[in-house]
Amino acid sequence: MRRIPLAIILLAVFMTVSCAQEKDLKIGVAIYDFEDLFISEVRNAIVARSENDIPVTVVDAEGKQQRQNEQIEKFIEEGYDAIIVNSVDRTASGVLIEKCMQNNVPLVFFNREPVKDDMAKWDKVYYVGAKAEDSGRMAGELMASYWLSHPEADRNKDGVMQFVVIKGETGHQDTELRTEYFIETLLEKGIALEKLHEDTGSWSRREGYDVMLSFISRSGDRIEAVFANNDEMALGALEALQEKGYFKGRYMPVIGIDGTPAGKAALENGMLLATVFNDAENQGRAAYNIAKELAEGRVPDSDAVGYEIIDGRYVWIQYRPLPGLLLSEK
Ligand code: GAL
Ligand code: CA
Fold first, then answer.
1. What percent of the chain shows pLDDT beyond 70?
2. Per the confidence metrics, is the pTM higher than 0.85?
3. Closest ligand, as measured to the CA of 162
4. Quick one: three-class SS letters along the chain?
């Protein structure tokens, strides 16, 4: 038998192993609802990041947790190496974590934060998100700066801001904390408040429109300010207000959150008072980078992932205030 140099054998073995690994690895991405605009931005960022790297398969739960459970079971059966999850019902995360733990498939949650007890069930569970309280605080600061520099905003001259809140999905950490910190920040600035109404618009423009119309029919001109928990609902509210004669001579301060392209357009045309930028691109990239490390069998560390990992399992992407024309002209 002719002898083949050892180096060549090693090279051949190395190439087979590394090719096989790259060919086999795959990441599943389970999204709560493809119709959610902000989440679509994160989804697009994940897909873009995966190009020329470990491929992703993205599935839509259409707002149904049962469907998402089945999709994740399928990922497990088909041998996916890591799963990125935007859960439908964040309180259902515990069940998903247990299932993945039994099959040793690491998980990266994003945007819909599992409760701490569930996160603690296994060490191959990560979360990428943004601190909801920061966005509420920034929205409160933006509203305060408008109110304090525009005395005419207090229409009935009672020294109190009569406001309404269009809330996001009930039970979502962003809904509860954004609303709470918005109010707290205004109070800290010494602004007296009266909340006339609050209702959920489920993150949707259509529902934000309906909710705003009902607020207007109940309180009309008594409303002096509007806080919507995201831009889509803020845009729905702007539509309703416009229909009722606002923005032709009289103004209504409306603040949203996300800084979606449509939200930014409304900042530029002067209708939206302000928004808070929710960084979809970096949330998507961070989630992918963590999933990649896990899929390749490593313990993700901040350097490899490119984002700081806190407490061994959290990556927090910063919000940023985006003041509209009325605020930046000052
Ligand atoms: C929020 C975002 C909303 C909606 C929601 C979905 O962070 O501001 O627009 O996308 O996540 O969970
Ligand atoms: Ca007032």
1. 92
2. yes
3. 2
4. CCCCCHHHHHHHHHHHHHHHHHHHCCEEEEECCCCCHHHHHHHHHHHHHHCCCCCEEEEECCCCHHHHHHHHHHHHHCCCCEEEECCCCHHHHHHHHHHHHHCCCCEEEECCCCCHHHHCCCCCEEEEECCHHHHHHHHHHHHHHHHHHCHHHCCCCCCEEEEEEEECCCCCHHHHHHHHHHHHHHHHCCCEEEEEEEEECCCCHHHHHHHHHHHHHHHHHHCCEEEECCHHHHHHHHHHHHHCCCCCCCCCCEECCECCHHHHHHHHCCCCCEEEECCHHHHHHHHHHHHHHHHCCCCCCHHHHCCCCECCCEEECCCEEEECHHHHCC
